[in-house]
Structures are given as structure tokens and as C-alpha cells.
Specification:
Helix content: 40-55%
Number of domains: 2
CATH superfamily of the largest domain: Glycogen Phosphorylase B
Structural class: alpha/beta
Order of helices and strands: EHEHEHEHEHEHEHHEHEHEHEHEHEHHH
Number of strands: 13
Bound molecules: uridine-diphosphate-N-acetylglucosamine, uridine-5'-diphosphate
Oligomer: single chain
CATH topology of the largest domain: Rossmann fold
Strand order of the largest sheet: 3-2-1-4-5-6-7
CATH class of the largest domain: Alpha Beta
Number of helices: 16
Largest sheet: 7 strands, parallel
Strand content: 5-15%
Distance between the termini: 26 Å
Length: 392
């Protein structure tokens, strides 16, 4: 019988955008529930500012470090350089046992690279998503492949994601299938007793059908966005019982065409990015969702809302296989006809509107904490060896 020394693992979460914050919040919370074992530290790059701060408020996360890198209209290289230098500075100062990143943003890539340069092990949440197309989504497909090369522990949301990693040569013992932490976040929010109003709904009569829209992917900027906006215009023109609600992403490349094409249409409600809780209420109220978002594809599946994905490829084939999502690309004709089919055919609608949840059971964070306990060895008892003891 050996003596077990309980030494806290100092795990530094590095993230910068809205979806990363939503998906890491439950993991941070889970580690914080075990203060004898973990000391979670939070570094925000603030690649997003307002949209990140909204989420930090909702989940009551107070960052220990804030790099504040966001600049209006920033380029990918601007973000990469700012995050790389800033994370390096903090890692040198703090020397955590582990760095955790999420998904496929430029913050995730640059933070993982900075950790690697400092020889600090990297844990990757939502690992293994792939489209196989280097430029779609751009730059996320390449970001996540590079993070996989840098990571020491891979938390795959599904078996499909695990299989992608295995095919790329990641050792089986370094992968855990955990479910997606977005389901944990969604459950926590739905269970919340907080009262939130969704002001835009006050302007919509109860009998009207709400089509909820979000769109922000870089590969659609320009003609793709114009086509999406024209499709929305045509949908409301042809169906008087439909109102589009579109919380417009703060990226100027999104706001310009959205305002120019849709700004004067009384049944298209362009609103500011919403706090997570009212946004979840809006998803629940929606008849169907049109989006190019990654997280919303997962949430729509969990909520049983038909979702039409305005992209040519998806890294979330589980939603398509489950029948809740359909790829429609950015062709206006295809978007309009797929939407109208769901508006007009009860059978087609019912086939998609079934809550299936291929993305997890809401306990992904617990599994991630368990894996961290098992594999990570804090420096203090590891005599300076920084690498976690991982099976081959
Ligand atoms: C980023 C991620 C994308 C993720 C998306 C989630 C990269 C390369 N892209 O895309 O993977 O799906 O976030 O929303 O990592 N802006 C603000 N305030 C904010 C947020 C953005 O003003 O709170 C504006 C700024 O002008 C900023 C621009 O939006 O320069 C673009 O932000 P950026 O983070 O570079 O890209 P996103 O399109 O938001
Ligand atoms: N979301 C939100 N308010 C909004 C729009 C989206 O809280 O106005 C949430 C949404 O529920 C999901 C996440 O933001 O959890 C998705 O973020 P986004 O679409 O920006 O990024 P992606 O998931 O495509 O990376």
C-alpha cells in the first residue's frame, strides 16, 4: 500500500471566442468542484471581446489573464502572433502542469503552439473533427489538424472523431471519447432558473413561425453571404407566416451584407449577438434553424430542431446521420427549396424534428476530469518531468 500524495494539477484553460467559452465553461466548473485535485486557471486571449464577455458573465468565469488581442477587422496572422506572444509570456510566468484548448480557432492553435514551445502538455477538447477539405471550413480544418499534432491528450466528442484521430496515427491510449461539452453547457443553461426576456419575440405574433438564422464562416464571405441573404429575403416574401430572426455576428464582413440586403425587411429581424440563455430560448421557440455554425448544429440536434446547414461540407456528419441536419450549401435556390419543404410538408418536418443526441449525454466534463486525473502527473511530484505519463 503506497501513500498517495494529493497535489493539485494546475490546468490552464486558454481560449478566446464565444463557442470556446461555452464549451469550456462546464470543464472549468467541473475542475473547480474538486479543489483538492485541480487548480483551474483561465487565460482568455479575447480574440472576441463582446461576444466572449457575454459568455464569461453567464457562466461566472473570471479570467486570471486577459490578453485583449481583439482588433476590429483583425487578420488571422494578427491573432496568431498576438496570442502566441501573450500565451508564451503567461506560461513562462505561471508554468502550469497542463494547457487545455478547445476546438479549431486561431486562439486554440496559437495557444497549443505556445504550450508546445514551453514543453507543457496540451489537452484538446473537441478533438478529431474533420471535413477532409483543407479550405472548408477555413481556417478551422487546418487549425484543428495542427492542434491534433501538438496535443498530448485528445478528448474526442464521438467515436467518429476518435476514428479520424486513429487514422492519422494518434495512439489509442491518448484519446478519450467523452461526448461534446456543449451538451453539458446546454443542460446547465436549460436547468437555470434565471429569468431572461427575448425582446425580439415581443415583436412576433405567437402564431408566426420563426426561422432562426446565424452565419459567419469566412469561406462564405462575399458572394456566398449575398446568396444567403437573398435566399432569406425570398423565404419571407413567399411565406407570410414566417419571420426570420437573425442575431448578426460582429464580424464586419457579415454585418455589411446582412444590413444592406435585409435591413429594411419588416419580417427579417436583425438583432445583436445574444446572451447564451435567451439564445437557447430562441432556439427552442424556432420552427427551424438555418446556420453555418458548428455549435448550433450540435445544439439543434440535442433540442430536436431541424437544422439546414449553409455549408458545402460538415465536420459533424453525426447530425446528418441522425436526421436532424441537412447540408444545403450557399446556393440561394437550394436554401429556399429546402426551407420551403420543411415549412410545407409536415411529414418532412417531423422526420427531422426528433431530438437525437449523437453528441453526448451531458457528462463530457466529468469524463475529461477523470482522464486528467488518470494521466496527468503534476510537476511537483514528477521531479520536473513535464510530460504526462501516457500509455504508448
Ligand atoms: C472566430 C473563429 C471561428 C469561430 C467564430 C465563432 C478563427 C479564425 N475564427 O471567427 O472559428 O467559429 O469565431 O464566432 O479563429 N468582432 C467584434 N467583437 C467580438 C467578436 C468579433 O467586434 O466580440 C469582430 C471584429 O471586427 C473582429 C472580427 O469580428 O476582427 C472577426 O473576429 P475573428 O475572431 O477574427 O473571426 P470570427 O469570424 O469571429
Ligand atoms: N450563440 C449565442 N448567441 C448568439 C448566437 C450563438 O450564445 O447570438 C451560441 C450558440 O448557442 C452556440 C455558440 O454560440 O453555442 C456558437 O457560436 P458560433 O456560431 O459563433 O461559433 P461556431 O460554433 O460556429 O464555432
Amino acid at each position: 500500500m503506497g501513500v498517495r500524495l494529493a497535489i493539485k494539477q494546475r490546468v490552464m484553460f486558454c481560449f478566446g471566442t464565444r463557442p470556446e467559452a461555452i464549451k469550456l465553461a462546464p470543464v472549468i466548473r467541473e475542475l473547480a468542484r474538486h479543489p483538492m485535485e485541480f487548480h483551474p486557471l483561465v487565460l482568455v486571449t479575447a480574440q472576441h471581446r463582446q461576444m466572449l464577455d457575454q459568455v464569461l458573465r453567464v457562466f461566472d468565469i473570471r479570467p486570471d489573464y486577459d490578453l485583449d488581442v481583439m482588433r476590429p477587422g483583425q487578420s488571422l496572422s494578427d491573432v496568431t502572433v498576438g496570442v502566441l506572444r501573450g500565451v508564451e509570456r503567461v506560461l513562462r510566468q505561471v508554468g502550469p502542469d497542463m494547457v487545455m484548448v478547445q476546438g479549431d480557432t486561431t486562439s486554440a492553435l496559437a495557444a497549443a503552439l505556445a504550450a508546445f514551445y514551453e514543453r507543457i502538455p496540451v489537452g484538446h477538447v473537441e478533438a478529431g473533427l474533420r471535413t477532409g477539405d483543407k479550405y472548408s471550413p477555413y481556417p478551422e480544418e487546418m487549425n484543428r489538424r495542427l492542434v491534433s499534432s501538438l496535443a498530448d491528450m485528445h478528448f474526442a466528442p464521438t467515436r467518429t472523431a476518435r476514428d479520424n484521430l486513429l487514422r492519422e496515427g494518434v495512439p489509442r491510449g491518448r484519446i478519450r471519447v467523452t461526448g461534446n461539452t456543449v451538451v453539458d453547457a446546454l443542460r446547465a443553461i436549460r436547468a437555470s432558473k434565471a429569468k431572461w426576456r427575448v425582446p425580439v419575440l415581443d415583436r412576433i405574433a405567437p402564431g408566426q413561425r420563426v426561422v432562426l438564422v446565424t452565419a459567419h464562416r469566412r469561406e462564405s464571405f462575399g458572394p456566398g453571404f449575398d446568396r444567403i441573404c437573398r435566399a432569406l429575403q425570398r423565404i419571407v416574401e413567399r411565406s407570410p407566416d414566417v419571420e426570420v430572426v437573425y442575431p448578426v455576428h460582429l464580424n464586419p464582413n457579415v454585418r455589411r451584407p446582412a444590413r444592406a440586403i435585409l435591413g429594411r425587411n419588416p419580417r427579417v429581424h436583425l438583432v445583436e449577438p445574444m446572451e447564451y440563455l435567451p439564445f437557447v430560448r430562441l432556439m427552442e421557440r424556432a420552427y427551424l434553424i438555418l446556420t453555418d455554425s458548428g455549435g448550433i448544429q450540435e445544439e439543434a440536434s440535442a433540442l430536436g430542431k431541424p437544422v439546414l446547414v449553409m455549408r458545402d461540407v460538415t465536420e459533424r456528419p453525426e447530425a446528418v446521420a441522425a436526421g436532424t441536419a441537412r447540408l444545403v450549401g450557399t446556393d440561394a435556390e437550394v436554401i429556399v427549396s429546402a426551407t420551403e419543404r420543411l415549412l410545407r410538408s409536415t411529414a418532412a418536418y417531423r422526420r427531422m424534428a426528433r431530438a437525437r443526441n449523437p453528441f453526448g449525454d451531458g457528462r463530457a466534463s466529468t469524463r475529461i476530469a477523470a482522464a486528467l486525473r488518470r494521466f496527468s502527473v503534476p510537476k511537483a511530484i514528477d521531479f520536473g518531468r513535464r510530460f504526462p505519463r501516457l500509455p504508448a
